[in-house]
């Protein structure tokens, strides 16, 4: 999360000011979407091996 905070500060300083609140919101949503896509399929070591087993346990 610290890295995400730094990234937001870095890019928002480049913009310096936003025309309105909606443009700021669109900017933040695009950054959060990129962050979520980047880390969507990551998992801890060993956990990836048991995801099929866990999924079958929850579907029963």
Overview of this protein structure:
The chain contains 3 helices and no strands. It is 77% helix and 0% strand. By secondary structure, it is an all-alpha fold. The protein is elongated and about 50 Å long.
Describe the secondary-structure layout.
Blueprint: H1 2-15, H2 21-39, H3 47-59
Residue ranges: pLDDT <50 for 5 or more in a row? none
Order of helices and strands: HHH
Helix content: over 70%
User: From the helix content, strand content and strand pairing, which structural class follows?
Assistant: mainly alpha
Strand content: under 5%
Instruction: Kindly provide the radius of gyration, computed on alpha-carbon positions and rounded to a whole number of angstroms.
Output: 18 Å
Give the biggest beta sheet. none
**Shape category:** elongated
Measured between the Cα atoms of the first and last residue, the distance is 35 Å
Figure out the total of helices. 3
Number of strands: 0
Q: Mean pLDDT, nearest integer?
A: 79
Notable features of this structure?
60 residues; mainly alpha; 3 helices; elongated
Brief overview:
This protein has helices at 2-15, 21-39, 47-59.
């Amino acid at each position: 999360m610290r890295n995400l905070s730094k990234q937001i500060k870095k890019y928002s300083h480049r913009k310096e000011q936003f025309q309105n609140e909606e443009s700021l919101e669109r900017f933040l949503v695009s950054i959060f979407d990129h962050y979520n896509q980047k880390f969507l399929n990551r998992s801890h070591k060993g956990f990836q091996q048991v995801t099929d087993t866990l999924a079958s346990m929850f579907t029963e």
